[in-house]
C-alpha cells in the first residue's frame, strides 16, 4: 500500500449561532456564522480512526469558541480556530473561512479567510 502524498481533512458549511460583531445591534444576540476548515495533515496510511485527525475535534473546537462568549470580529474567531487546529502536531497547515451571512444586506455573506502554517502562528 502506498502512503498518500498529501492528506486533507475538512469541515464545510458548519453553521453556528455566535455572539459576534462590534456594533450595538449585534451585542446580546447570536448570529449565524458559517465556518469552513481545511487542514493539511501529515500523510499516512489510515486503517482506523486513531490514524486520522478526526474532523469532529474541529467541530468541537469551533463550538467551544462560539460558546466561550461574545467575539467582536470574524477575524478573531478565525484566529482562535486556526490556533486550536494547529495545536494538533499532525496539522501542517490550516485554512479557516468564517462568514456572517446576515452581515450585509444584498450580500450572500461576508467574512474572512486565513491560512496558518506550522511555525507561523
From TrEMBL:
<dbReference type="Pfam" id="PF02152">
    <property type="entry name" value="FolB"/>
</dbReference>
<feature type="domain" description="Dihydroneopterin aldolase/epimerase">
    <location>
        <begin position="9"/>
        <end position="116"/>
    </location>
</feature>
<comment type="similarity">
    <text>Belongs to the DHNA family.</text>
</comment>
<dbReference type="GO" id="GO:0004150">
    <property type="term" value="F:dihydroneopterin aldolase activity"/>
</dbReference>
<keyword id="KW-0289">Folate biosynthesis</keyword>
<dbReference type="InterPro" id="IPR006156">
    <property type="entry name" value="Dihydroneopterin_aldolase"/>
</dbReference>
<protein>
    <recommendedName>
        <fullName>7,8-dihydroneopterin aldolase</fullName>
        <ecNumber>4.1.2.25</ecNumber>
    </recommendedName>
</protein>
<comment type="pathway">
    <text>Cofactor biosynthesis; tetrahydrofolate biosynthesis; 2-amino-4-hydroxy-6-hydroxymethyl-7,8-dihydropteridine diphosphate from 7,8-dihydroneopterin triphosphate: step 3/4.</text>
</comment>
<dbReference type="InterPro" id="IPR006157">
    <property type="entry name" value="FolB_dom"/>
</dbReference>
<comment type="function">
    <text>Catalyzes the conversion of 7,8-dihydroneopterin to 6-hydroxymethyl-7,8-dihydropterin.</text>
</comment>
<dbReference type="InterPro" id="IPR043133">
    <property type="entry name" value="GTP-CH-I_C/QueF"/>
</dbReference>
<keyword id="KW-0456">Lyase</keyword>
Amino acid at each position: 500500500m502506498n502512503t498518500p502524498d498529501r492528506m486533507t481533512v475538512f469541515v464545510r458549511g458548519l453553521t453556528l449561532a455566535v455572539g459576534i460583531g462590534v456594533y450595538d445591534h449585534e451585542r446580546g444576540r447570536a448570529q449565524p456564522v458559517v465556518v469552513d476548515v481545511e487542514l493539511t495533515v501529515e500523510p499516512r496510511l489510515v486503517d482506523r480512526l486513531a490514524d486520522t485527525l478526526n474532523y469532529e475535534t474541529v467541530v468541537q473546537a469551533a463550538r467551544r469558541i462560539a460558546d466561550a462568549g461574545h467575539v467582536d470580529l470574524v477575524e478573531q474567531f478565525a484566529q482562535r480556530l486556526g490556533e486550536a487546529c494547529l495545536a494538533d502536531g499532525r496539522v501542517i497547515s490550516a485554512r479557516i473561512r468564517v462568514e456572517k451571512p446576515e452581515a450585509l444586506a444584498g450580500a450572500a455573506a461576508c467574512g474572512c479567510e486565513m491560512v496558518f502554517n506550522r511555525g507561523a502562528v
